Structures are given as C-alpha cells and as structure tokens.
Amino acid sequence: MANRLEAVADPVDVAVGARIRLLRKVRGLSQQSLAEAAGVTFQQIQKYERGANRVSASMLTRIARTLTVPVAEMFGENSASSGAVDEVAALLAEPGALELLKAYAGLPRGVSRSALVEFVRSLKSQPS
C-alpha cells in the first residue's frame, strides 16, 4: 500500500490551478482580491494555484465568474491545443514573465526586439 504522506498532486488539479493563476495575473488581480471575491483566504488561492488542493465545482464557478471566463476554460475545453496552452500557462506563471511580456509588447516598433530577446537569452548562459 502506498504511503499516504507522499501524495502527489493530480495533473488535472495542477493544470486547473495554473489556469487560475494565469487568468488572475492577466486580469491584474492579486491572490488576495481573488480570494475575497471567492470567499476564501489568499492561502487557499495559493493552494489551488499550485494544485495542492482540489477546487470544488462551486468554488471553480465563483472563481471563473470573478475572472470573467466560462468554467470550461479552466479545463482547456475552449482550446483545441490545450497542451500548448498548458505550456504557455506554465511559462507565464513564472515570476515576472507576464510583466516582461507586457513590457516587450509595449516597445515601439523601431526598437530591436530581437536584440532584447538575445540579451535575455544570454543571461541564461551566464554563470550564477
């Protein structure tokens, strides 16, 4: 019998949590403001976003309403390529990623965006 203390988060719960986090960030909401609208603590929202706690159907409905999306979007039902959406959601869930993307999109057309991308890539190969 498997040790119950070594519980692993269900991939569906993790994917739903990642979508909650992504949509919350896109809407510019803090965990606290989403929690207040949903009637839970911000710690509970953190647990949902990590996939540590499952989101009940009624809670998912409240969260979706707050984020102004259909509940089905939390499962990737509105996207034919949910694998790609999940990958993008995971990337955008990285701290600072959404802010970096918004700043990039706001650059004037004359600015060399490719140079900026190369600069950021070069930081990855720098020793810590």
How many strands in all?
0
> What is the CATH T-level topology?
434 Repressor (Amino-terminal Domain)
Category by helix and strand content: mainly alpha
One letter per element, helices H and strands E, the order comes to HHHHHHH
Find the CATH superfamily: lambda repressor-like DNA-binding domains
Assembly state of the chains shown: single chain
Radius of gyration, in angstroms, nearest whole number: 17 Å
Q: What's the CATH class label?
A: Mainly Alpha
Q: Please tell me what the overall shape is.
A: elongated
Helical percent range?
A: 55-70%
- The residue ranges in which pLDDT falls below 50 over 5 or more consecutive positions are 1-6
End-to-end Cα distance? 43 Å
How many separate domains?
Answer: 1
What is the count of helical runs? 7
CATH architecture: Orthogonal Bundle
Mean pLDDT: 82
Q: Mind summarizing the main beta sheet?
A: none
Strand content: under 5%
